[in-house]
Amino acid sequence: MDFRTDLALERCEFLGKKETKGIEIEEFDAKKARVSRIAVTDENGEKLVGKPKGLYVTVEVAPFAQHAQFIDDSLEALVTEIRRLLPDKGSVLVAGLGNMKITPDALGPKCASMIFSTRHITGELLKETGLTGLRSVSSFSTGVTGDTGAQAGEILKGLTDTLKPDAVITVDALAARSVSRLGNTVQMCSTGIVPGSGVGNARQEISEKTLGVPVIAVGVPTVVDAATLIADCSDQDDTLLPDEMRMMMVTPREIDLMIERAAKLTALAINCALQPEISPEDMLILTA
Amino acid sequence: MDFRTDLALERCEFLGKKETKGIEIEEFDAKKARVSRIAVTDENGEKLVGKPKGLYVTVEVAPFAQHAQFIDDSLEALVTEIRRLLPDKGSVLVAGLGNMKITPDALGPKCASMIFSTRHITGELLKETGLTGLRSVSSFSTGVTGDTGAQAGEILKGLTDTLKPDAVITVDALAARSVSRLGNTVQMCSTGIVPGSGVGNARQEISEKTLGVPVIAVGVPTVVDAATLIADCSDQDDTLLPDEMRMMMVTPREIDLMIERAAKLTALAINCALQPEISPEDMLILTA
Amino acid sequence: MDFRTDLALERCEFLGKKETKGIEIEEFDAKKARVSRIAVTDENGEKLVGKPKGLYVTVEVAPFAQHAQFIDDSLEALVTEIRRLLPDKGSVLVAGLGNMKITPDALGPKCASMIFSTRHITGELLKETGLTGLRSVSSFSTGVTGDTGAQAGEILKGLTDTLKPDAVITVDALAARSVSRLGNTVQMCSTGIVPGSGVGNARQEISEKTLGVPVIAVGVPTVVDAATLIADCSDQDDTLLPDEMRMMMVTPREIDLMIERAAKLTALAINCALQPEISPEDMLILTA
Amino acid sequence: MDFRTDLALERCEFLGKKETKGIEIEEFDAKKARVSRIAVTDENGEKLVGKPKGLYVTVEVAPFAQHAQFIDDSLEALVTEIRRLLPDKGSVLVAGLGNMKITPDALGPKCASMIFSTRHITGELLKETGLTGLRSVSSFSTGVTGDTGAQAGEILKGLTDTLKPDAVITVDALAARSVSRLGNTVQMCSTGIVPGSGVGNARQEISEKTLGVPVIAVGVPTVVDAATLIADCSDQDDTLLPDEMRMMMVTPREIDLMIERAAKLTALAINCALQPEISPEDMLILTA
Predict the structure, then answer these.
(1) For residues A75 and C224, what is the distance between their CA atoms, to the nearest angstrom?
(2) In chain B, positions 175-234, which contact chain C (CB-CB < 8 Å)?
(3) Assuming Cys at both sites, which of A143, A221, C107, C119 could form a disulfide with A176, CB separation 3.0 to 4.6 Å?
(4) Is the reported ipTM for this assembly greater than 0.90?
């Protein structure tokens, strides 16, 4: 397994997609969306999938770039799956990871900027809204280490210690193995972000272990490594590729539009999962 | 004193600018820049100036919007004054305050994005740079409460507890009383940001008291309240103005360019104050 | 009349708003919108209003900045009034005037970027759309002379000679006399843009005379000159104001949001006026 | 030759890079830059290279993304080669082609926005500058057909008919065959933009034949087609690739930074080629 992917589903496909000791797979169609729920249940599963014990859900939806209509069956499936992973109640911090200045990595910050934050809506301000059951939500982008001098995990540690949320949702761009996964897939998992989960991914762990509260990671595959693509298409050993190739990525031509739409859809899904009292139509207007 | 200003200098001008018990003023020309150092030394001074005991320095420079050449005498004066307020050594967190989506309030975030962060440059990475005396710097934008759900002060509390800087520099857009202050003035102070320092400013205190380390506040006046302008020009009582006027601000026509340049100049001044080993020319290239 | 305004309605208000020889005024409520139609009918009217013979329509709507819901009664009034000024059929060129890099002047370019251009949708491409009655529309931003080296009027002359539209719609930011006009007003007129129509406006004429086809000008007041505000509030002679004041403008605090919304609303109104076959809901999705 | 490239140099490399009837090649090092001048001189050359008779110059420079210092030997080589292709004197229109909203295609519009336009600097305004020999320059971005409803060629026809430049320079992003060409190459040619010059390029011809004045095309390769990359790395017939692969492109990870720098460098080179009286240092400040 020398190709890079952040998707548990692609790891399982590579294994032949059959259930085995330590891996349980449930797949079904939720109207127009296709849902795959993978449970990694023991160390054998961890080793095979390359990810820690927990739940990994993939929702395949209509292509984001042709998806100017956000409120449909796909949204419903996303909302349902996010709610299944989240604690029933309590405050939530939504954290956008990634680099605003690199288009395919800008998903996290763009999504975070569209989260409906409510933590400051209290007292008189709350009465004015007429809403009684608002869940307390804060949101933030961690920036990237090269710009801030700090790792995303350090920043989130500081913010969770101070804001004391009951759960954290991270949003991030992912790498896939196959170009057919780009622009139509959302992955959610219960284990946060753990180094080594995708090859080539040296980030600090962001998980319940490091933050002290459950961490749900929402991700969208936006690139395929060029080296992975070539290795995949040509059965070449990617260790033989020239160095410059390792700096190359493969994206759809409409990557800018795809990121805009993916950020808007994931933000809407998270917002609706967190605030069941507000309709998707009203949520779109509130966050416009 | 019913007009709004965030500048200690304008408060003193209103008082007739003479020294008095509790207020010491030193003014001089540093080549092309004009420097005013105001020390508020006791409670009488605090009451007169409307700001806590500490140092308030104003540097008047060539108009930012005509100032595409950043490396000149003005820069030198800014660097000197920032260094006088900062601890001699130790790590620093630079925090941009304000709203990226409101042009005259975007100074803080824009400046923070141009800070030369070095906290992560250690070990091998440091050896590669060939620099031996890099001061540890991290930088961050706090966002605004309406977007994040958290106050800037809360976020900075979390970040200072985790990143443990020895000092914090905040950067922020200010309001002036006089339009002649816009686009050519930088204020620095040793007291951080304290509510009530400018009328109409309801922010949470960000200071050594709340963060536990010295807080130097760097600010640039970018707007005059329309109500202040009218009251000032017409000797009208501004409490008689219609409500809609209170939502209006006065800015130069070239406000977008002015903010770009002011952010670039203050970032360069802070960067050079923190890294004396690096020349301004090299710093401009490093942060381009 | 030494104050600056681009609104015919404010000129008439200054005259006492009564009809007189050469000026006919019709005012009515169109559900939530207030419509004023002013006809300048002879040279006496031209002299009084300071604008050439023709129709000047103002539609007052709900404040743009609180107006995340675009499809409502206001839209209907705008669509109706634009259609009244436009030729019944034939191709149209929509031209955004103004400076993308100056927030309150960015209305024209932002609106033009949201126009639903159809001129290239022909043959097979048209069949695919399933639409039979698409009006041919092109759109463009002229940029500003300081950037392009050419005047907006020259550029539009070149484009109309080549693209041969049957009418031109210009979209532009305007200056008002009163801050109460900002953020809630759209003016449309049949005479294009003619120098001297607002004091201080030295642009080249863009009209049927110069382009050879009818020119409808759509404008939104986004600023009040600081000099006009002061003169108005204090009965001061604005010629006595210091020079720096002439470079100042007054805008709402939420100017960035206001411009976004105003551009989206005017674009939607123009798009719906041009393509009656497409519903406002579908148009919003097509141009998202 | 079933791979896609817009670079004459890559076509020649594919042919074995030897001169032959109809193709003359001159290569040399200009300090740190590598210059290749290819002359296509007859129909045989046209057939082999797949481009019309004329001059095709490639300058290989230091990688843009590591190139924050713009004024160096590479700039000198670019300026020299642009001047060789340009008429000695007369006015010039610089046209940015491509899509501002698609990162790797945004080179043209970004470059055009940094061109030093002078056509409007006449009379008093010229005297103020103290410059006597300013060449008349205008600049413009054509937008893309899907947004404007018009082809770039139509818009340039309208602008050249009205502004009457003596030559046109187009700036555009290109596709290369090899990833090693991305981020370090500028191509200039004397023949404008002619359909079929790169496979998959269906644009309308923009050349002396259509515009009536010489057209110099400046281009920077920013992408490799994924299909070309795979065909190249695996000797697969790219006609067998799945359809979704045809919508994929390969770019460097730092594509956003690369485009910024490439646009700045090409704009500086064009500006300096057009205004020999102004030093590169002053030009950088004038266009900052």
Answers:
(1) 44
(2) 179-180, 182, 224, 226, 229-230, 233-234
(3) A221
(4) yes
